[in-house]
From TrEMBL:
Pfam families: BPD_transp_1. It is a multi-pass membrane protein. GO terms for molecular function: transmembrane transporter activity. The lineage of its organism: Bacteria, Pseudomonadati, Pseudomonadota, Alphaproteobacteria, Hyphomicrobiales. One of its GO terms (cellular component) is ATP-binding cassette (ABC) transporter complex. It is found in: Cell inner membrane; Cell membrane. It comes from Phyllobacterium myrsinacearum. This is ABC transporter permease. Keywords: Cell inner membrane, Cell membrane, Membrane, Transmembrane, Transmembrane helix, Transport. The chain crosses the membrane at residues 20-44, 56-77, 97-115, 196-219. PANTHER family: CATIONIC AMINO ACID TRANSPORTER, MEMBRANE COMPONENT.
Length: 237
């Protein structure tokens, strides 16, 4: 299965690894986009005006209420069709949107709603005395966010963000329904061609497990760095 030494390997190992690479690209892009949306959304819900808070609340409520598969189908097909209709209305030709870009945008939009709530909760966990002291010193909002808010909220946000990253890696499998060549779709194609369903889906499960274990190792190191100088979770108990 994993005969990768030949330039044209007869097995499906190379295809599975390429599918894994595609899944990781989408996961990284979607997580980054979701983090950006979540940061804006969290600040909007906490410090924005009434209209901004209402828009952010509607966004997070709808996205978290509708099943992710339905959102993916809606955004992938309806979203790309809407973009092309707008281009045609402006006198431009229709464009073929890359499956990679579409997958990142769709999952990033979904991730953003959950990241908004994770970051909002982390910001609210910061002792208000620190924020008030920064304001009393006349610290500008951007500087206060860089020096006070982000360092103080990071230890509280990391567990939730770590969970969102692991969800992002697994949610890439949902893109198989729209025909994007990620790990799950490639696995299904390989199993359907060879009829070795057990072998290929076990291989895919092992690859997903390897991503999770490696991610947990890295995230544990990051959390340890973010909590430096703070009591450990065991000590806090």
């Amino acid at each position: 299965m994993f005969d990768l030494l030949s330039p044209n390997p007869p097995g499906w190992g190379g295809n599975l690894l390429r599918g894994l690479a595609n899944s990781l690209q989408i996961a990284v892009g979607a997580f980054g986009m979701g983090l950006l949306i979540g940061t804006v959304g969290a600040y909007g819900k906490l410090y924005g005006g009434p209209l901004v808070r209402d828009i952010a609340a509607i966004y997070t409520t709808i996205v978290r209420a509708v099943p992710e598969l339905v959102l993916i189908l809606l955004l992938y097909y309806a979203g790309t069709d809407m973009i092309n209709r707008m281009l045609e209305g402006l006198g431009y030709q229709r464009v073929d949107i890359s499956g990679l870009v579409a997958g990142i945008v769709v999952l990033g939009f979904v991730q953003g709603a959950y990241a908004t709530e994770v970051l909002r909760g982390a910001i609210k966990s910061i002792p208000q005395g620190e924020i008030e002291a920064a304001r009393a010193y006349g610290m500008p909002p951007a500087l206060m966010m860089r020096r006070i808010t982000l360092p103080a909220m990071l230890p509280h946000a990391l567990p939730g963000l770590a969970n969102l990253w692991l969800i992002s890696t697994k949610d890439t499998a949902l893109l198989a329904v729209v025909g994007f060549s990620e790990l799950t779709l490639v696995t299904r194609q390989a199993a359907g061609t060879t009829k070795a369903y057990f072998l290929f889906f076990i291989a895919a499960g092992i690859l997903y497990l390897a991503i999770t274990l490696f991610s947990n190792l890295i995230l544990g190191k990051v959390e340890q760095w973010a909590r430096r100088g703070m009591p450990s979770v065991k000590e806090a108990r």
